[in-house]
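Minimal example, chain plus adenosine monophosphate.
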Amino acid sequence: MNIVQTIEELRALRWADPSLTWGLVPTMGALHEGHLSLVRRARAENDRVAVSVFVNPTQFNNAADLEKYPRTLERDCELLAAEGCELVWAPTELIMYPPGYQTTIIVEAITKLLEGAHRPGHFAGVATVVAKLFNAVEPTRAYFGQKDAQQVAVIKQMVRDLDFNLEIVVCPIVREPDGLAMSSRNTRLNPAEREAALVLNRSLAAAVAEWESGRRDADHLRASMLALLEAEPLARVDYVSAADPATLQELTGPVESALLSMAVYIGDVRLIDNMLVGVE
Ligand code: AMP
């Protein structure tokens, strides 16, 4: 496995044999089984797999969150080598944003809702860095997790709008055995918070069960999630949502399909999770 920093090194390896297909898995490192599920899917569908590891400062709207973000590059590379990944690209901030850098990509309507409404500038940072990753690697396919449902919607929109020549592949959420969605931020939870964090999965699952039993009113689904979240003393709700899976607009009345999602602080760690109902 090659581990490179510069775009020149990356491109030399990427284009050594132009006939090969490449899968790209963009990450911020601190890898867990969620990331590795994307790598395995990329492995199965492409001749070569590249994983980028870059903690992108421009998508953090909170300085403390950026500072506390776990960085474990050596271990990440061991995990990726064991998965048969060919190339790890871990650029520095200076490589990604050299002095004089001026360009930002703004995806409009879909970034104003949900995460975008609560994390100013987040999706401008995400869209811009992902566009740079796509241009540097020029992958055949790029792999993203449904864990970050709005991120997937924003990137698909950007790929359509800017005519990126690649396929976006979306992979299901990987959870711990007790249901907690895997996240690099989970390592920051103390044991009591780790237990409390189960309330995200529990409240989503309860809303899914309500929907399946025929109680399909969007306001009721939101209220049901909120009631369970508010019963957990260590949880502080940022938002709960029952939104149109395509437009991400909040729904009212009975719904045939919905993206149920939430952002919740457990202690000072902000966690997100989601489940889809009525899709496929
Ligand atoms: P991150 O390193 O948090 O930026 O995540 C990199 C990629 O892994 C993103 O496409 C995430 O959606 C995806 N990802 C993170 N956690 C999970 C998970 N628990 N299950 C599936 N994909 C995930």
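The pocket of adenosine monophosphate is lined by residues 27-28, 34-35, 37-38, 144-145, 147-148, 171, 173-174, 181-184 (CB under 6 Å). Residues 2-171 form a domain with the Rossmann fold fold (CATH 3.40.50.620).
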